[in-house]
Amino acid sequence: MDKIFIEGPNQLFGKVSISGAKNAALPILASSLLAKNTSIFKNIPKLGDVKTILILLKHLGVQVEVTQDAIKLCSDAVQRFEAPYDLVKTMRASILVLGPLIARFHRAVVSLPGGCAIGQRPVNLHLDALQKLGAEIKLQNGYVYAKSKRLIGTKIKFESVTVTGTENIMMAATLAKGGTQIVNAACEPEVIDLANALNAMGARISGAGTRVIEVEGVEALQGVNYSVMSDRIEAGTFLIAVSATGGDVLIQNCNPKYLSAAIDVLKKAGVKIQEQVSSMRVQSNGDLTAIKVETEPYPGFPTDLQAQLMAMLTQANGKSVIYENIFENRFNHVAEMQRMGAKIRIQDHKAHIFGKTPLTGAPLMATDLRASASLVIGGLVAKGRTEISRVYHLDRGYEALEEKLKVLGANIFRQKEGKEVANAERVSFL
Ligand code: EPZ
Fold this sequence. Notes:
This protein is an alpha/beta fold.
């Protein structure tokens, strides 16, 4: 397993370009199951999770062709409808093939995703809603067995907001007979991006990005040429990294309006951020004010930036508080940060962060995707060497993060599995 080494402290200066959004790419790639003929998707990030969903789609019989700047998919020859446990367990978002398989092929056998480091991650809301659309759902041996005639549009009211639940149902409803109204829908920008891709395929979706989405079922969808939005969580990660280390960075190919809650929080903490249409400039002298933040469904502060913000708040003057309201166990990064000297106290779903606390480099272990990003930020701030193991967690959701940070002046280096770092390299990564 690869490791990442950081020699801190570092400040970050220069320009960085944001890659395509993981959480838009995954449902959009899954939506290729709904369309006749070939779909061509661009700006798909080169990530572990994208690789996993392509392996799953190929397993189902989707023809997949990866070129330099696009991914071409054709699902007309699909004749397997099973998403096996050994694939689904590595990436929960595999559940996103369920809605499309039922809608177009009227059958699916999908492994229940099971929990992960950040929580139980049930999919009951997905299954209840699919049943309301007319699917027959049975749970057995850890699998969802589903079959249906043509789905029938109806009103679906989610008792709580679910992003992939909204996406699964929106996809399933595109080929249902009649109209479907999704109430208490997730408003994330990635839901809007998926709706835009589906409408380009011939779907009839309105209201995406609001709490009420209307879908008028059609007979068939056609393959499409579509470019995926840029990753707001990667952009937010860079905003927070520069805020924590100090520096001056232009973040390009991003959409600041999708980060307004995070930008407001960082400005409150004393960070200077200038937003343009598709870029933002972040400047920080490392002098930060403690703040109180709650994670909420979009447009609130995103849970996917919570761990990164916590790393930054170890450098804020005073006591900050973070409430994690979305997942029940998303503080795995705290123990690792405490090993760097961070002063953090957890009380239920509340974290108290005492700053400004000097951090020292340490050997750390990544536990989940966004926790690993927070350890990188901690390593950039800390004095001395930080070594992060299990970086496959990081590679699931960030494309070439250490390369992008190196260009900004970070003293960061990846040790490929089994390749010893030459002593000269240990001393300096420049
Ligand atoms: C999506 O996960 C994202 N993943 C997550 O990003 C993100 O953290 C999450 O939304 C919240 O914003 C993708 O889009 C691929 P939810 P999802 O369903 O859809 C509970 C990352 O780091 N729930 O909105 O799985 C659930 O347990 C990842 O990129 C049910 O109880 O999240 C959670 O507490 C991590 N029953 C809450 O709802 C259900 O059927 C929100 O989950 C579904 C969800």
